[in-house]
Backbone:
């Protein structure tokens, strides 16, 4: 039951982006009786078990430039599709840890980094995390069963135990281990990273947008690219200009605007929305829109084992080695990291052990495909002022707007953390007799965080503790751009928890008539 | 703490040394594509000698002796299609011009040395990318014992996913305490 709203209806909440943040927010708002128009730049995509073509169909291919350490050809992998990057996410659903919410206090001053504490405590987030875990059906929480073991996961856990790790488990995954919430149990197809054909994996596409639609209060406009957020004379957001599927400019009026376009497009849209009243960009009085860009640190270990692993079987990720998530400066860096097993299919294996491998020796590594075990490292990335999203002075995108430039250079702490983790990962596989281990840091970002960070003091960030921008009270940021620090965990459970909390806040503000 | 941890190239190169020795013998290389699959090239841009060189380039980049020429020719076709773009074609042609005339007839080691001269050119990245598509071709999957999508048989959930029989028994026992 899709609703339809008039372009001049200024009673609606406009949500920009239908991914993890925008989808969850839309579903929670409509459930509370709020009318929502969601503008989504991408279209509806059919999901098939074919990794190379799936990536091609969903990937955000609009031009953007890279300055610094990220891969210039593909600095960032995100999706442009109904459901956003949640279509292809892995499902690892972990909380940011209590000490990480007060990173500045607990880590102290780190030269070259702009560490800050979150404006709310872990205790304040705890009930929202619990709600998000229940909503996403996270395994190993709230009575949801764990996913079953497979070889690749078991090897990582056994190797870790051999080295004395203790926080080793089947992990917390937003993947149904049993039928629930109208979605089936995982059949262990092993193509999670191309999208889940049956919707066992939580995604905005499969779990949130259908709920929003069923409310009768939701209109999703696909292939609608927002290009500017407008404000009225009082400095309140009044509507969103977008380019529709036919290339025509439209203006949707709004009572509230929520920006969930992922951590690059969100600050870009604020910068593109500069006006006489907001010359540096909408809600950018602090000058911090786009700054403190974090990606989480990612690394990979590929090990050739003495026997078969067949790691194409079963969920791409699952299980968790969490001991190194702690903050322990004795290791030579602040913050922590984790390991999850990572399944790799033959079509993409060629770029895994080395991004540039070739020749007879490399062909032997390819021949060893069935004996390959693999894990991913995910770690805390420090906020650095100069790591930022800016608008390019020359290049325009297909909508006529300056393309984003992604500036990202790793901090020494980042390098030390990844080096430590990859050594440990190699040790884990060597403990089980690996004959070859390849480790490397990833230079393609899949998490985009911190570019409109939360702060108590309007001079220190872009949004308040609920994601409302300090300067425009009815303009909200509803994605990972809000993050103050990245934590060691991947971001999506936190994005969902923040969206649920923000929806509750918006509903009470709407009822009170304050926005 | 290592000094330059995000650049592992030196170490990776070390690790690669000796891979061939370590793995030979543990692999079953008996699968062969049917010889009939080696169809003549129906290329638009490249003539037969250029196609022969490109085929040799692809085979040099990812040499699997047990595979026939047919799946490599698919990669050559992809290069041929991309070469409709004049700029792309010029960069490939410039690269190929730097290879010795008898490149296709030389043995693997000689061809690798010749190719490594091109390693830092954009054309090399494009050629590697095209040749790497070899592994996307379902025709080669049986050789690597990779079954591909599992949708047709309902996923791995009712099949074996845990069969690490090669692990020492005492190690495997640890797996009983994995859920926590
Ligand atoms: C391969 C991969 C694996 C991952 N695995 C994990 C994991 O295991 N655990 C985890 O926590 N996270 C994981 N992530 C990250 C996760 O996908 C993201 O954190 C999450 O999707 C972010 O949600 P979002 O709503 O901010 O952005 P998205 O989900 O990207 O949604 C943003 C949407 O906004 C749309 N949009 C952008 N600009 C505009 C505009 N101007 N107008 C209209 N629409 C616009 C986009 O098209 C997109 O659909 C993974 C990511 C990738 C790529
Ligand atoms: S392994 Fe499970 S979660 Fe992943 S795609 Fe398959 S059914 Fe979906």
Residues:
């Amino acid at each position: 039951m899709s609703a339809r709203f008039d372009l001049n209806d200024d009673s609606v909440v406009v949500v920009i982006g239908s991914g993890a943040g925008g989808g969850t927010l839309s579903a929670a708002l409509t459930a509370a009786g709020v009318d929502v128009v969601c503008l989504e730049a991408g279209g509806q995509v059919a999901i098939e078990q074919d990794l190379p073509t799936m990536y091609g169909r969903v990937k955000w291919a609009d031009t953007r430039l890279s300055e610094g350490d990220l891969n210039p050809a593909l600095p960032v992998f995100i999706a442009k599709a109904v459901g956003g990057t949640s279509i292809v996410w892995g499902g690892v659903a972990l909380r940011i840890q209590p000490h990480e919410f007060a990173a500045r206090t607990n880590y102290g001053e780190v030269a070259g980094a702009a560490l800050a504490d979150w404006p709310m405590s872990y205790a304040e987030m705890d009930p929202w995390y619990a709600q998000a875990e229940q909503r996403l059906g996270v395994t190993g929480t709230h009575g949801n069963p764990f996913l079953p073991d497979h070889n690749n996961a078991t090897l990582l856990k056994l190797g870790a135990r051999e080295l004395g790790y203790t926080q080793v488990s089947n992990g917390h995954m937003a993947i149904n281990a049993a039928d629930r919430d109208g979605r089936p149990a995982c059949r262990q197809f092993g193509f999670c990273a191309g999208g889940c054909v049956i919707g066992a994996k939580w995604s905005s596409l499969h779990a949130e947008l259908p709920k929003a639609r069923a409310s009768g209060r939701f209109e999703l406009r696909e292939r609608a690219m927002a290009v500017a957020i407008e404000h009225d004379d009082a400095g309140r957001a009044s509507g969103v200009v977008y380019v529709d599927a036919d290339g025509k400019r439209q203006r949707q009026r709004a009572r509230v605007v929520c920006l969930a376009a992922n951590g690059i497009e969100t600050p870009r849209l604020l910068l593109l929305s500069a006006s006489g009243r907001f010359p540096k960009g909408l809600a950018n009085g602090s000058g911090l829109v786009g700054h403190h860009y974090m990606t989480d640190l990612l690394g990979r270990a590929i090990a050739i084992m003495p026997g078969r692993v067949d790691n194409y079987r079963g969920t791409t990720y699952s299980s968790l080695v969490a001991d190194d998530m702690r903050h322990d400066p004795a290791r030579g860096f602040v913050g922590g990291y984790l390991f999850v097993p990572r399944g790799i299919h033959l079509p993409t294996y060629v770029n895994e052990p080395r991004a540039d491998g070739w020749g007879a020796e490399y062909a032997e590594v390819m021949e060893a495909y069935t004996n390959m075990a693999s894990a991913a490292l995910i770690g805390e990335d420090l906020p650095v002022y100069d790591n930022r999203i800016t608008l390019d002075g020359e290049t325009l995108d297909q909508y006529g707007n300056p393309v984003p430039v992604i500036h990202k250079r790793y901090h020494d702490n980042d390098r030390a953390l990844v080096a430590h983790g990859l050594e440990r990962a190699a040790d884990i596989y060597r403990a089980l007799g690996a004959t070859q281990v390849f480790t490397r840091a990833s230079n393609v970002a899949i998490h985009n965080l911190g570019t409109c960070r939360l702060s108590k003091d309007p001079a220190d960030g872009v949004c308040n503790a609920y994601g409302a921008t300090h300067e425009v009270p009815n303009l909200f940021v509803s994605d990972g751009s809000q993050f103050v620090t990245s934590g060691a965990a991947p971001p999506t459970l936190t994005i969902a928890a923040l969206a649920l909390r923000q929806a509750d806040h918006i509903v009470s503000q709407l009822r009170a008539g304050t926005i | 703490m290592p000094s330059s941890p995000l650049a592992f190239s030196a170490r990776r190169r070390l690790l690669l040394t000796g891979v061939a020795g370590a793995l030979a013998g543990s692999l079953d290389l008996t699968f062969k594509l049917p010889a009939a699959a080696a169809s003549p090239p129906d290329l638009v841009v490249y003539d037969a000698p250029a196609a022969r060189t490109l085929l040799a380039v692809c085979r040099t980049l990812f040499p699997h002796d047990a595979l026939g020429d047919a799946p490599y020719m698919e990669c050559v076709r992809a290069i041929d299609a991309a070469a409709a773009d004049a700029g792309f074609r010029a960069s490939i042609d410039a690269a190929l011009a730097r290879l010795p005339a008898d490149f296709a007839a030389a043995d693997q080691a000689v061809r690798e040395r010749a190719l490594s001269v091109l390693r830092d050119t954009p054309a090399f990245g494009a050629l590697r990318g095209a040749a790497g598509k070899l592994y996307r071709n379902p025709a080669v999957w049986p050789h690597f014992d990779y079954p591909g999508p599992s949708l047709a048989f309902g996923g791995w959930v009712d099949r074996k996913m845990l069969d690490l029989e090669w692990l020492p028994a005492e190690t495997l026992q640890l797996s009983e305490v994995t859920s926590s």
